[in-house]
User: Fold this.
Amino acid sequence: MSYKVEHVNPYNGKDPKNEQVKKMFNEIAPRYDKLNGALSLGIDNYWRSDALRELRQYRPRHILDIATGTGDFALLAQKLLHPEKITAVDISEGMMAVGKKKVAAKGLNHIITFAHEDCAALTFSDESFDAVTIAFGVRNFEEIDRSFQEVRRVLRPGGLFLFLELTTPERNPMKSLYKSYTRYVMPMLSDLFHTERKAYEYLPESIAAFPQGREMMLILKKNGFRNIRLRRYTLGVTTLYMAEK
Assistant:
């Protein structure tokens, strides 16, 4: 099955979505951390921390962090959960290059390792990980079903798949505030940080097209997950999805 968001591309060219996403993130990688913090007004740190606390009861020893970007979610997972190993993967070498420097600066190379991987065709063995995490990356998937099936394949029985995703608020006043923010504030910030504007036009477009709430829960169920639940943050700006194998 194809989903609308899979056809929302950063450049609307002929290249596959994953190639366009890789190009976009490689280009914005040097400025990504500063701009991302500004766009979220810093509240994304709370979303990430609260989400990872859900993993404490599972006591994961080996975590796979997909679409790791510059490694912030992996670093936070190490700080909060103290796993033996975190494998951080992404299709953007540029983003991971920034992440590798941050991990090295903290002396965590023995715990957090990076690998270039396509989430729709992971190279890891079956049942290799106790938990799989993704922070704001599912919107960028070219094949959501295939990627979720890969997540389930590499996850150990009883393990947790946890991901955060930006969503569209459904009720006012946040719905109106969000619309104004994406229309006026996001473009202004991208100009301020001298970042390619197209990358931040893609952001609200992909959020609007993303299957959310009950629809996403049904997608997870269809792909074999169980005990599926969600939690909304900041009146619906972000949603945490959790599902077990």
Remarks:
- The chain has one domain: 4-244.
- Strands lie at 62-66, 85-90, 112-116, 129-135, 155-166, 226-233, 238-244.
